[in-house]
Amino acid sequence: MGTSGVDMDFITTTSMVSSLLNTTDLINSTERRSSSSVSPTMYISIFLIWAPGIVTNIFALTFIIRDIRKAVFPALLLLLVLCTADLIAVSFSVVKHTIAKKVTPSFESCAAFSVVHTFFRIYAGVVNALMAIDRVLAICTPFFYKRCIDVTTWKLVCLISAMVVLFFNCFPLLGLGSVMGIRSSGAIYCTALSFKNEPIERVYGFGFGIVGTICVTTVVVCNMILIRSILKMNNRITNLKTSESSSEQNSDGQPNTSVTSFEVAFAKLMGGLATVYLVCGTPYNALILINQFNIKVNPAVTGYIHLLGGFSYTADPIVYILIRKTNRKRILEYICRCKRDVEAIK
């Protein structure tokens, strides 16, 4: 009996020590995860995506709103929608990561995060596709474009697209996806796009990848058509400057004056934005599709793809600001004005 009591005491002590060691290991592993999560990726996000993304989108929106006050046209409205969505997406990303650091993931928080986060991912692709379609219509079918496409048209299309994308992002809440995932370490995190064990819960992930692929394909095809049309029109635009007849017909039986050099310049701007979307968005969409087949990808590669996808929110306004000559001129004037003010103070 005595020996049995000693054994029980020994077992109890051993269990307590084992439990204490496990708790210590858990705390250490949590601290390691916490310290690693604030190292390179977090700093890259701050200095490459969040800070410049917010600043550049505010600058771009300022320029766009100033242009809209002078004259509103359909392509400018699409740019306004894109930059507004980018600014909201970057701001939300900052809030999301800040809350995720301090709040334990729950279904409610993950549902809110996933729906909003993926909404902007998809909607950015949709708006880029709409801009590519807008330029094709403006350059290749100018009569139809000027007669049938106006600001109201794209307002309605953007609104309907937003509603459709929002409904699609509710799929996880309807049982066609899941907003939570489990890491290899056993930690729970918010994600609607990772691999799910239940086939029906992969519907949203596959849908996300397919929608992204459709947007990428649309952008590629439309820009190929644009490049071909612009190359054909280069000689015609040059001839317009020296031509004395404004009624001269082109090979399609349409007046050359129906497409202005401004339309071509804006098409080049849209081409730059499309390039950003293709470079930043294509790897992300491919990664999501790969995830649905439970194909393992190097975590470092996954991290860089996510960073590249987020960088599109920063690159869009930079492209808009730098490509347009009027924007570059405004920036130079602002810098010169600031320089004169500083010299006057001295």
Write the layout of secondary structure elements.
Elements (H helix, E strand, L loop, with lengths): L1 H36 L2 H31 L3 H29 L4 H34 L1 H7 L2 H18 L11 E3 L5 E3 L12 H40 L18 H32 L6 H25 L1 H21 L1
Antiparallel strand pairs: 1-2
- Mean pLDDT value: 80
Q: Reading side by side through the largest sheet, how are the strands ordered?
A: 1-2
Residue share in β-strands = under 5%
Please tell me the total number of domains.
1
In terms of quaternary structure, the protein is: single chain
State the CATH superfamily name: Rhodopsin 7-helix transmembrane proteins
> In CATH's first tier, which class applies?
Mainly Alpha
Question: What does this 3D model show about the protein?
Answer:
With 346 residues, the chain is mainly α. It has a single domain (40-243, 252-345), classed as Rhopdopsin 7-helix transmembrane proteins (Up-down Bundle), CATH 1.20.1070.10. It has 10 helices and 2 strands. The protein has a two-stranded antiparallel sheet with strand order 1-2. A hairpin with a 5-residue loop joins strand 1 and strand 2. Helix 3 runs antiparallel to helix 9, helix 4 (107-140) crosses helix 5 (142-148) and helix 8 (261-292) runs antiparallel to helix 9 (299-323). The longest helix is centred in the middle third of the chain and has 40 residues, at 203-242. The chain is globular, with a radius of gyration of 27 Å. The N and C termini lie far apart (94 Å). Mean pLDDT is 80; it is low at 1-37 and 244-257.
Task: Give the gist of this structure.
The chain has one domain (40-243, 252-345): Rhodopsin 7-helix transmembrane proteins (Rhopdopsin 7-helix transmembrane proteins, Up-down Bundle), CATH 1.20.1070.10. It has 346 residues and is mostly helical.
